[in-house]
Structure formats: structure tokens, C-alpha cells
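Meet my pick.
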Amino acid sequence: MTPLYISILVGIGFLSGTSNALVGGGTLFSFPVLVWLGIPPVTAVTTNMMALWPGTVTSAIACYPQTKNVRSTLPVRIFAVSAGGVAGAILLLLSGDALFANLVPWLLGGATTLFAFYKPFVRYVLRASPDHRNVTALPIMEFFCAIYGGYFGAGIGILMLAAMALSGEHDMQSANAQRNFLVCFIQGTAVALFAFSGTVNWPVAFIVMIGSITGGYFGARVIRFIPNEWLRWLITAAGAIFSVIYFVRVYG
């Protein structure tokens, strides 16, 4: 690896870690750049998820105390999302680079759209949701969300929030805590499978991980000073640009 290559990896890790600490969407930075650097698409997903997972763990630990009002529902939901994460990871590994490369523009475009309009999307879902929690349907919905989370993962937090809203969860502070806690298990089971699949580029993963941990700490320190909407639209713009580039590359 050249010094420039290492610097780019640290930089995208830092940007992704900072973004995830503030508003999410870090994968919209890191994944396209890894592919641009010549890493095969499936390896880029597995390496990126491995690199960013430590930040997910710290978020889960920090958010766990805020899940006390739904603590009794967590064992079933953890099982559901873990199973979904494994299913998504297996689907990714079975897809292969050729098929997955054709899906990349759609995945990036969909995740960018979801990220850009998640507030009105969640508000709409909340208005349409029941007044009481449906604890039976929620694990099923979260299982299907988790399949996507293990397969690609960008925007998974927004899908999890929507599932909780549809099940009757109206306390968004609690929902955010539940989301962060459960995403840790979705990605944790996926990266456990990836670790033994031979698809992870470990040197790249560790370098990006160093940048993401640093960025996560930086984001937590400056969160009071950076307008979240500015960062959200910056990430949306980056995601849109990358989406167009990949649509042209694949279908142009």
C-alpha cells in the first residue's frame, strides 16, 4: 500500500465514523470509495461492514439503558434480527461480484433516497401506525429488515425505525435506542460470517477501522456545533453523485 492509498482509507474511515456519530449514512461515503480503489464489490461490503462494526458496538452499549421499557421483547427480537443478518450475509456471499455489481447502483440510489427523505417517511409511517404496540408482528418485520442489513446495510437504521413505527412504537427516543442496539446484532452476525468467508480485506478493514473510531470520537465531541441538516444533505449529495456514477458505469 502506498502512503496515498493508506491516507484515503483513513480519510474515508474518519468521514464515515464522524457521519455515523452525527446522523448516520457512513456507508454512503465508504463503500463507493472502496470500490473506486479497486476492491471487488462483495469484498468492499464485507470489509466496510467489518471496519465500521466497532462503532456500532459502542452505540449499542451506550443505548442499552434506554431500552428498559421494551427489555422483555428484546430476546425474541435479537434472535429475529440475528437470523436475518445471517440470511442477508449468505445472500451476499452467494450473489458474487458480477450480480452484486449490477445491484450496486440501485442499492446506493435507494439508500440515498431513504436517507434524504427519512424524516417525512417516518412521520408518514407514524401517522399510519396503530396506537398500541404489536409485539407479534415487530420481530417478523425486523427479520426482513435485517436481511437487507446483512446484505448491504446502508440505511438499515431508517428501515428499523419504520418497522417499529408500524408496530405502534411512538416514542422516537426509545425507538432510536432500540434501533442502535439491534443493528449491532444484525451486523455482528453478518461480520462473524464474513470473517470466515475469505472475502474480507483485513489490512484495509483495520486501516478504515482506525479512521472510523477516530471519526466516531470526533463526531461525538463536535455534535453540538455542526448543524445536522448540513451534514445530512452533504451525505445525500455524495450518495447521489456515487449513484449516478455507478448507474453510468453499469448501464451506460
